[in-house]
Amino acid sequence: MESLESGSDDINQMVQAQEPLICGLPDDIALFCLARVPRVYHTVLKCVSRRWRDLVCSEDWHTYRRKHNLDETWIYALCRDKFERICCYVLDPNSSRRSWKRVQGLPSRSLRRKGVGFEVLGKKLYLMGGCKWSEDATDETYCYDASINTWNEANPLSTARCYFACEVLNQKIYAIGGLGLDSSVPHSWDTYNPCTNSWNSYSDPNIVPEIEDSFVLDGKIYIRCGKSAVNFQVYAVVYEPSSGTWHHADADMASGWQGPAVVVDGTLYVLDESSGTRLMMWRKDVREWVPVGRLSLMLTRPPCKLVSIGKSIYVIGKGRSTVVVDVSNAGNMGGIMVSSSIPKLTSNDEIISCKCLSI
């Protein structure tokens, strides 16, 4: 009986695979139509049939929407709540409600960890490493597929580490520096190649310890630690992918990098939180930092993280309070930038990291 039922299931799957996506239309025309359905309704599409579900969850769907500029970007925030547990929220910037929603199913083994890495590659989120007060750094890695809303265990890091930088360059994840099980960890980095589903480890003595921030600009990775206790200067290094080495970043650029950073269309912006919240811009042509404007203290709740979508910078602070600044039209009145905001929540969740994921 079991073999008969199994054979029947195989036949049903073959029949469904042969059926058109939309009756009376070739599949390429059906894909042309379905791919234009807004991302918020993709969950509904997956309920129509098995073929529709498999299509919406596939890499082909993701690639097609990206190729035809149909992909939509949502923001994912990794937070720590009042119980010292990590949690994840997602924001659809195009929604009329513009409210944060919780992402369920976070791996239970990671909930109490600190110093975890958080990065996006393609349509997947990666949660990496971390440690507890009673547990050394780990190499465990978990992957969240946004198209199927599911967490799974992934290939572990080459090196157990926590409190490290994460960036994506040339379609590879870089896990850089931090702390680990031996003294070599702060001066090493791991790279993940999704094509081979494997990690590789490298080392360089120039990598800074106690990393506080990072970004990618002009095809290079920049990382920095806090100010030196000796000369109170910001210490930053840059990774050159052509040579696979790290060297000191230019002092004039590093001097103004004193807060969370984000790159918009090749231009670097930093949120200076030393006195209120002031957005600064790095002018590469004249090698100097210039103020863009101040954000209202009534809207921001530092410490904040920055992400960008198009020409807009999202300033996300405690409790996921969110301020949106369009830098293409950053007109200011009396030094206060014109911006829009998402109403504050009663939560005081700490923002660990924010990333953008497009489907």
Automatic annotation (TrEMBL):
Organism: Corchorus capsularis (Jute)
Lineage: Eukaryota, Viridiplantae, Streptophyta, Embryophyta, Tracheophyta
InterPro entries linked to this entry: F-box-like_dom_sf (IPR036047), F-box_dom (IPR001810), Kelch-typ_b-propeller (IPR015915), Kelch_1 (IPR006652), Kelch_FKB95 (IPR057499)
Gene3D superfamilies cross-referenced by the UniProt entry: Kelch-type beta propeller
Domain F-box: 25-64
Keywords: Kelch repeat, Repeat
SUPFAM superfamilies: F-box domain (SSF81383), Kelch motif (SSF117281)
PANTHER family membership: F-BOX DOMAIN-CONTAINING PROTEIN, OS02G0202900 PROTEIN
CDD domains reported in the protein's UniProt record: F-box_AtAFR-like
The protein's name: F-box domain-containing protein
